[in-house]
Amino acid sequence: MERSDILIVGAGLAAITLVRELRKRDSASTVTVVTADDGHFYSKPMLSNGLAAGKTAAALVMTPRETLESQLKIVIRARTRVVALKPEVHKVLIDQGDQGELTYGKLVLALGAQPIRLPIEGDGAADVLSVNHIDDYARYREKLEGKRSVALLGAGLIGCEFANDLRSAGLAVEVYDIAPQPLGRLLPTEAGSLYRQGLEAAGVHFHFGVGIKTVERTMMEGAAYRLTDSSGAVSEVDLVVSAVGLKPETALAAAAGLAVNRGIVTGADLQTSVADVYALGDCVEVDGSVLPFVLPIMHQAKALAATLNGTPTAVAYPAMPVVVKTPACPAVVCPPAPGLAGEWKTVAGDDNIEAVFRDGEGRLAGFALVGSEAVKAKQSLAAQLA
User: Does pLDDT of 220 surpass 70?
Assistant: First the structure.
């Protein structure tokens, strides 16, 4: 029976960063990575802005699987699906044509997150694309061939990045969101208004306060889909892409009896409710927070690598500004903690806004920068937060 000192389920940024951090400390432990995809390491942030750069799915691959295995001295079980966790006997069950078992000393869940699917009706609802990994991106690029117009569902971080990318590639873009502004969970109102103007100047067409009710295939010349929104308005486009958000992948953990809430529940040590099982990345909820961004993942990986190497280490986050990849209107956001009492103060200039959030005692607790000049304040404000 195959056994590993450390078994990692998932092969995305969280998993591979963890392995790299582990190998800085430990070159001897056996490490196996199990993944349902091909095991190549690619730039996931490029999924939402690779089109205008002419990047195919193959071009997004940064390190092939074979190179990862050689460089990091690991085994990658590609195209292998974990179907159940058996933490009481330190095993996972896999399905790779025939069912098998893998045994571990320590188990790490780096399961990522799954796209949220909206309750849309119509015979075209199943055709709505979500782009969450490289295989999705390959299908998305294939479907875009010869297309002229795209409807994007969601005006959050990823939706806006896709909108900017599609416009840069020359496609007409219609964006729908029930929120009153883009980046509704990140930007205060005045900053959100300027950000909207920046993307609209680039040709993005927003529809706020409405959601899509039906997507129907059309058999007529021109656009492939007819959309009806919650106000009753009808539009036609060539392709529909959903970017309404992600939900942490928790099904395997829940079925095995691990504590789950919005994500797989851990403390700052990243250990789950079951001994010798850890979690990190988009699937984890650390002390009540789900942080599906690159910088939190990097800090989690460093802390967990130290813990797995025998030095228990709690993850601690510095200020972690989020850079929104929309060249048409640059933006950087470091949101305050959810529920924190305080208020936004805004300084507006020509095509720029600097908004800072101060808590009840007047301390800087967050900021939002919109515009090419405003974003230059990122480092100085982040230093004050730190």
Answer: no
Q: Is 363 exposed, middle or buried (0-12, 13-18, 19+ CB in 10 A)?
A: exposed
Please measure the distance between the N-terminal and C-terminal CA atoms of the chain and give it in whole angstroms. 48
Give me 295's structure tokens.
């910088």
Task: Name the β-bridge partners of 214.
Answer: 121, 228
Q: Which long-range contacts (CB under 8 A, 24 or more apart) does 274-277 make?
A: 274/87, 275/87, 276/87, 276/90, 276/104, 276/105, 276/106, 276/107, 277/85, 277/87, 277/106, 277/107, 277/108, 277/109
Q: Which residue reads 């515009």 in tokens?
A: 371
Q: Three-state DSSP class for 293?
A: coil
What are the backbone dihedrals phi and psi of residue 24, each rounded to the nearest 5 degrees, phi first? -70, -25
Q: Could you tell me if 270 and 315 are in contact, meaning their C-beta atoms sit under 8 angstroms apart?
A: yes
In the predicted model, what is the mean pLDDT of residues 151-168? 97
For residues 157 and 186, is the Cβ–Cβ distance under 8 A? yes
Structure-block tokens of residue 152: 């994007």
- Euclidean distance between CA atoms 255 and 110, whole angstroms: 16
Domains of the chain in sequence order: 2-114+246-308 (3.50.50.60), 117-242 (3.50.50.60), 330-385 (3.30.390.120)
Structure tokens at 265: 């529940």
Edge-to-edge strand order for the sheet containing 212-217? Answer: 212-217, 225-229, 234-237
Backbone phi and psi for residue 144, each to the nearest 5 degrees, phi listed first? -75, -15
> CA-to-CA distance for 369 and 254, rounded, in angstroms?
39
pLDDT per position as a tens digit, 354-382:
999 999 999 999 999 999 999 999 999 99
Signed CA dihedral, 256, 259, 265, 268: sign only: negative
Question: Is this prediction's pTM over 0.90?
Answer: yes
Q: What is the pLDDT of residues 121-130, one digit of tens each?
A: 999 999 999 9
Per-residue pLDDT at 154: 97
Helix, strand, or coil (residue 366): strand
Residue 140 identity (one-letter amino acid): Y
| pLDDT recorded at residue 1 | 61
* Residue 319: per-residue pLDDT: 87
Distance of CA 18 to the CA centre of its chain: 17
